[in-house]
Write a structure and sequence with these properties.
Blueprint: H1 2-33, E1 47-52, E2 59-62, E3 68-74, H2 90-93, E4 104-105, E5 108-109, E6 113-118, E7 130-135, E8 138-140, E9 143-147, E10 151-156, E11 162-168, E12 171-178, E13 186-189, E14 194-200, E15 207-213, E16 218-220, E17 226-229, E18 235-243, E19 247-255, E20 257-263
Parallel strand pairs: 1-20, 3-20, 7-10, 9-15
Antiparallel strand pairs: 1-2, 3-17, 4-5, 6-16, 6-18, 7-8, 10-13, 11-12, 11-14, 14-15, 18-19
């Protein structure tokens, strides 16, 4: 009797182990393939759409997950950046700089702030501060992003006086002189969404921008004009692209999607 009981228990254990191994195998397959549990192994991944800010017809794009990515194109007359006139300050004049207001390479526009302005939930501010440095008499980075409640830290990396003057709209947020590279950093906590403009009252060519959103679904285009905003829930969103000279453009997007914003130079 005892032997029969032991054999029955062993059988139950074997069946349970086989079931667990089967489930583990299929769950790994699901994660790797991006399919749901009810999907067929041969089914294609979910399709996203390509959306043009000018309203061209959507094009299919295979993307797994709720990601909004794309690029910002410049279709106008090729832009050749001019030289910045920095001769008034001997230290700044030691290094020649081009005007970074409009940077276009291979038809792609850099330094465009792309962010979700409607449809996404608010997100807590990241613990790390956003740093804006003054190096070689320029703000670096030229354009960056922050979330409401996140700290901004301004540093002076030059052995000369800079004056950090920031605006939200027409209102001054802070206005502080930083005599040299030994100056203590200037810190500020963002309180509301919007575009913070940075300038130096000593060196008028120095400009910088921090785009502040209520959520972290934002990016700044690089020299290739591309951007990528991950971790979104599938759904409908309003996107905005902003450039310091050409202004803002908006469009409606259903994530996941590939988005194309286009400027032609006539916007300013």
């Amino acid at each position: 009797m005892q032997r029969r009981a032991l054999l029955a228990a062993a059988g139950v254990i074997a069946l349970a182990a086989a079931y667990l191994l089967w489930g583990r195998h299929h769950s790994v397959k699901q994660v790797r393939s991006g399919e749901t549990a009810a999907s067929d192994a041969s089914a294609p991944p979910p399709a996203a759409t390509t959306v043009d800010a000018k309203g061209d017809a959507p094009l299919p794009l295979a993307v797994v997950g709720a990601v909004i990515e794309g690029e910002v194109q410049f279709t106008g007359t090729p832009v050749v950046p001019g030289k910045l006139h920095r001769e008034a300050d001997p230290y700044c004049a030691r290094r020649e700089m081009i005007d970074p207001t409009v940077l276009v390479a291979s038809g792609k526009l850099a330094n465009v702030w792309v962010h979700v302005i409607k449809g996404a939930p608010d997100t807590p501010p990241p613990p790390a501060a956003v740093e804006v440095n003054q190096v070689d008499c320029m703000y670096s980075p030229r354009v960056t992003t922050a979330v409401v409640g996140q700290r901004l830290v301004a540093r002076n990396g030059d052995p000369i006086l800079h004056n950090v003057h920031t605006y939200l709209g027409t209102s001054t947020l802070f206005n502080r002189g930083m005599p040299n590279e030994k100056s203590a950093p200037v810190e500020y906590v963002t309180m509301e969404p919007g575009l913070i403009k940075w300038k130096c009252d000593v060196h008028p060519w120095m400009r910088g921008y921090v785009g502040v959103s209520r959520n972290g679904f934002q990016a700044v285009t690089g020299t290739d004009g591309s951007f990528r905003i991950p971790n979104l829930s599938p759904g409908r969103y309003t996107m905005e692209a902003w450039h310091e000279k050409f202004g803002a453009k908006t469009l409606e997007v259903t994530a996941p999607a590939r988005v194309l914003f286009t400027y032609d130079g006539s916007e300013h």
